[in-house]
Amino acid sequence: MGACSRCRILRKTCDKGSPCSACEKVISPRVWNAGCIRDKLSDHVQLYSAGVQIVVSQKRCQELRDQLNPTNKGAVVEISQFPELGSGIVAPILEYSVGPVPGPAGTSRQIVMIDVDKDDLPQKLEEYMREVLTMLVQHERSTFARVLLETAIQERAKTDDKLLELALELWGLVEIIDRENEWQISEKPQVADGQSDRVMPPQSPTLPDPPLNVYSVMTQQLSAAAERKASTTSKVLLDKMNRDLHDSKTKVGFPMFLSALILLNCIEKTAWTFLAWETDSIRPNWPLEKDPASFTRDLSRVAENLKTLLVMRKVLPQTEKSEPHGTIAAVDAPEAMHFFFHRLGLDCKYPRFPAPLFSCADIDHSQGIPSKLGRISCYFPRLTLAPRSCITVHISSSRRLRFRAKDPERPES
Q: I want to staple 299 with a disulfide (CB 3.0 to 4.6 A). Which of 199, 212, 283, 395 is the partner?
């Protein structure tokens, strides 16, 4: 058992008690009111290492390999969510011969999937994400999240902060998974074919036996590749965040504040996907032995521990109600923090949400698994930036919000 967080930060001798002897001697604790925090942030975040997308994709692809025995004949596809930018992924594909047809071609071809054995798809997807990150941020529908991300990009450019870089990359990977049904895929024929590009729409033709939606198979492979990178990125991010917050010699400030908010944005968005698996229509297709709820049950601990550490390191700003607009403003904070709150325009007039925003009606169940979350976007329904109370973060869907951002793009709940 390691030292508790308070003793690590203050460099005090710690023991096995809960609270430990050092914390127990504090007469009027400002942060620690019960127990000691000894767990790491990464101990409670297994959303990305669970490998749900990976298992689903591998199972489906293996079934197709066993049944169709597809081969790589040199053809490739171009894949992008923003083809107008000229950024995309070129990947080899597996195909098989459907049967003889009249004419010089001799046989009819059927594309099956991306050839992930011949290409490093996770690496290509990570490079693609970095190219289109700014565009992904521009398409974020939540004003709160978009302002947060734009501020983080500007701050990273000024400070070259590694933690912000990791947080933004994790958000980009999670966003790509969330936008699974927005990929545009087109086959690039071989030169000898003399044909134009063949675009695969989301509802691609299916074969009578077995039913084969090529677009769905490929987008699942892309989500699995993004999940592999998200697993690695989240681990490095959480470990570095935990290490920096516990090291009193490491200077932390506004970049840490932004990184924490982006991390919670990612966790919440992914948590909704796990909650969707509890829907009766798709619950039988859950690919793992552990229940979906087991991956979201402890997420509130992440928010609570993160809040405690941020308060202890004096990263969170004191806030107050500004006049005459009635919005939340930072007090005695850096200029960048003041401008950030000004852009957010958090309004103190809205007391709370009557119910969580999650609805299974927003989930696409057409493929038997939860894909694009439809209207669901992270509007921080469990994030409170309250006057004089710094910051309170709730992940549990049973909690409610006391203050929220003015967001004309979002209908009233």
A: 395
Q: Whole-prediction pTM value? A: 0.80
On whether the CB atoms of residues 157 and 51 are closer than 8 A, the answer is no
Rounded to whole angstroms, how far apart are CA atoms 329 and 338? 7
Given CA atoms 237, 239, 242, 245 in this order, what sign does their dihedral have? negative
Distances (CA, A) of 9 to 14, 151, 174, 244, 248: 11, 28, 31, 10, 5
Beta strands in 261-333 (DSSP E): 318-321, 328-331
Same domain, 229 and 278: yes
- In a shared domain, residues 78 and 204: yes
Task: Tell me which residue of 2, 11, 1 sits closest to 312, measured CA to CA.
Answer: 11
pLDDT digits (tens, 9 = 90+) for 77-104: 999 999 888 889 999 999 887 766 554 5
Residue 91, both tokens: 């990947």
Residue pLDDT, tens place only, 288-327: 999 998 998 888 888 888 888 888 888 888 888 877 777 8
The verdict on 162 and 66 lying in the same domain is yes
Please state, in angstroms and as integers, the Cα–Cα distance from residue 297 to each residue in 48, 49, 224, 275, 291, following that order. Answer: 15, 16, 23, 10, 10
